[in-house]
Design a protein that fits this description.
This protein is α+β, with helices and mostly antiparallel strands and about 290 residues long. The protein contains 5 helices and 12 strands. It is globular, with a radius of gyration of 20 Å.
């Protein structure tokens, strides 16, 4: 009996060791010495090359398309040219946002700082997200060991901010215009949707996802820098005739959404002061 108990204990401790190792590996992909950004050569930023893509939805290809994804009365989709920019591979995490909150003493919701370090930050307003991006922009510019590729892009007019609708959609669907980041069929093995809550960023292995990005579908809705307006999209008029109660576009859907709401073309919107457990963000470096 004692041998059996010892054997069971060894199994229990072995399983615990595997779980702990997996947790350590998950945290190992972020660098606490560099604002808890991804421990990758470009700090987790991924280059999205210059080029065009079909923005919006064609119901002949995507029968789940909503009317607000229509380009115009005469066209279902528009071809949009997007210059080179860099986007974070992962949604902004609790650890990254906590670094910002501690450094700036910004009055943020306590709930946004709760949770495990590698979970996506939630309960953040649009203004919180913009403030984080501006703070990170300053940190990168002051860094003595910033990767030369990013340094050059910042020096040439780049800035850290939220993605525009066009930048976000191109990064999500690729230049060929997929319905989902991985293809044209919903796939529960590729994203966190129709579930009970958020999961750590990058939890889903998706080698087929556009540009190798994680969680562009599901997990949390992501704020963009674009105010909600009818298509056709034109970034040059994003600040024209905005009412004081303008809504800001969110993209990607969340853990609580079904397959139709995590498509790459789906357009959500919310008040800039909204805090929700299913809204987060990710950042880009862009010259736009």
């Amino acid at each position: 009996m004692r041998q059996l108990i010892n054997f069971k204990l060894r199994i229990t401790f072995s399983v615990l060791a595997i779980v702990l190792l997996a947790t350590q590996n998950a945290f190992a992909q972020f660098d606490v010495e560099k604002w808890s950004l991804a421990d990758e050569p470009l700090l987790g930023f991924v280059a999205i090359p210059t080029g065009s893509f079909p923005m919006g939805s064609n119901p002949l290809i995507d029968p789940m398309a909503f009317e607000n994804e229509r380009w115009s009365q005469s066209r279902r989709q528009g071809i949009v040219d997007v210059p080179l920019f860099y986007i974070s591979r992962y949604e902004t995490t609790v650890a990254q946002f906590r670094e910002f909150a501690n450094a700036t003493q910004r009055n943020v919701s306590a709930s946004s700082l709760e949770g495990e370090a590698n979970y996506p930050v939630t309960n953040v307003t649009w203004t919180d997200a913009v403030a984080y991006a501006r703070w990170l922009d300053q940190q990168l510019r002051m860094a003595s060991d910033l990767p030369s590729q990013l340094r050059r892009f910042l020096d040439e007019g780049g800035r850290v901010t939220l993605a525009s609708e066009a930048e976000w959609e191109k990064a999500a669907k690729g230049e060929e215009g997929r319905i989902y980041p991985w293809g044209n069929q919903a796939d529960k093995s590729k994203a966190n949707y129709s579930s009970d809550g958020v999961v750590p960023v990058g939890s889903f292995d998706c080698p087929d996802c556009s540009f190798g990005l994680a969680d562009m579908s599901g997990n949390v809705w992501e704020w963009t820098r674009s105010p909600y307006q009818e298509y056709p999209f034109d970034e040059t008029n994003d600040r024209d005739d905005l009412a004081s109660d303008a809504l800001w576009v969110m993209r990607g859907g969340s853990y609580s959404d079904e397959a139709n709401n995590i498509r790459a073309s789906v357009r959500g919107a919310a008040d800039p002061g909204a805090r929700r457990p299913f809204i987060g963000f990710r950042v880009v470096i862009t010259k736009q």
